[in-house]
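Tip: read the tokens left to right.
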């Protein structure tokens, strides 16, 4: 990677953005602090600095970064969490304004936050103002959109073209209806969102071109390359073997009627195999992301390999850490297909892999 192609990935995670860049013949250097995540990145061949993004100095990086990526931890803002970040929104807005004025008040404001992690959402602006990369791509849960809009306003004042909004990963070929907030910015070209490649139910051809194919389903993507996956039963040394060609013809003849259930409440989301998955939420609900029969009978928990494919990773991606840590990494990652689509709008066309 030459100096003209240096991409810095804040809160890098296991490699969603990194795999998206790899599809465009680009690579990043990630900053990540979690040991298991760093181990996953190393096994996947992604360069990583193990460090705290909030404490890492920007001075040594000046003049060396062309692209900046950031996916701050979302737990404090996520609907699956306690949403302590909502109480901290005014402090986050203040920190953004202070950074834009050249005043670093992060330490003081962090001490007054309900959850100190909330303030991590301002870190990309600190890096952007110090490093002035050519382009920026940020991702978070939808609740963070007002902070992204604020950040975009501050970046616009320094010469960036910006766009903020919500994208559904299903519109870009992921078999999962995952909605996330994005901010994209560029100093060299108009910042525009990627054009969808799929649509709910598909769309017909018109005078402007061919229509879009329908959203991909779990059945579509779990038909991965032939092979066997071994899943361990709960608290057993055994497990089940099923072909990675998909659960639709695995274990039982009734498998085509399987549904994926996410959550343990009576109102938990259920999706058929011929539909995209709902947003995959793990964490405390890890054991409640499971296959059930049409009558609600539990079959087995979702396998790591299946979760990875539903997030856009290849089935043999080298996840490190405990089962819990692996699922956490998958659930927190940017879907690879969406990362590729978005990064293609920002990176120089000459560097892209031929389609």
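Filled-in amino acids:
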């Amino acid at each position: 990677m030459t100096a003209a192609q240096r991409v810095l990935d804040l809160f890098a995670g296991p490699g969603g953005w990194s795999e998206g860049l790899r599809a465009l013949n680009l690579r990043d250097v990630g900053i990540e602090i979690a040991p298991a995540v760093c181990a996953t990145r190393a096994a996947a061949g992604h360069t990583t600095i193990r460090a705290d993004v909030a404490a890492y100095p920007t001075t040594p990086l000046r003049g060396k970064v062309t692209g900046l990526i950031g996916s701050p931890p979302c737990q404090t803002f996520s609907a699956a969490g306690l949403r302590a970040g909502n109480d901290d929104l005014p402090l986050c807005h203040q920190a953004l304004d202070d950074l834009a004025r050249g005043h670093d008040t992060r330490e003081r404001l962090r001490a007054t936050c309900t959850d100190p992690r909330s303030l991590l959402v301002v870190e990309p602006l600190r890096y952007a103002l110090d490093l002035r990369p050519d382009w920026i791509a940020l991702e978070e849960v939808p609740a963070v959109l007002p902070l992204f809009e604020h950040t975009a306003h501050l970046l616009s004042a320094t010469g960036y073209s910006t766009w903020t909004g919500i994208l559904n990963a299903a519109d870009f070929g992921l078999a999962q209806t995952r909605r996330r907030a994005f901010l994209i910015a560029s100093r060299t070209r108009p910042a525009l969102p990627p054009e969808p490649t799929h649509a709910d139910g598909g769309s017909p051809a018109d005078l402007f071109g061919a229509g879009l194919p329908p959203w991909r389903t779990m059945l579509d993507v779990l038909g991965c390359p032939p092979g066997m996956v071994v899943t361990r039963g709960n608290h057993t040394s055994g497990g089940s073997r099923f072909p990675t060609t998909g659960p639709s013809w695995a274990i039982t003849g009734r498998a085509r009627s399987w549904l994926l259930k996410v959550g343990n409440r009576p109102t938990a989301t259920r999706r058929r195999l011929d539909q995209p998955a709902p947003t995959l939420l793990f964490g405390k609900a890890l054991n409640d992301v499971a296959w059930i029969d049409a009558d609600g009978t539990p079959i087995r928990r979702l396998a790591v390999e299946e979760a990875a494919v539903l997030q856009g990773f290849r089935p043999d991606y080298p996840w490190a850490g405990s089962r819990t840590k692996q699922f956490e990494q998958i659930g927190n990652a940017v879907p690879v297909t969406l990362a590729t689509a978005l990064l293609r709008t920002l990176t120089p066309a000459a560097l892209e892999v031929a389609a």
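The first helix runs from residue 16 to 23. Residues 224-240, 244-253, 350-355 have pLDDT under 50 and may be disordered.
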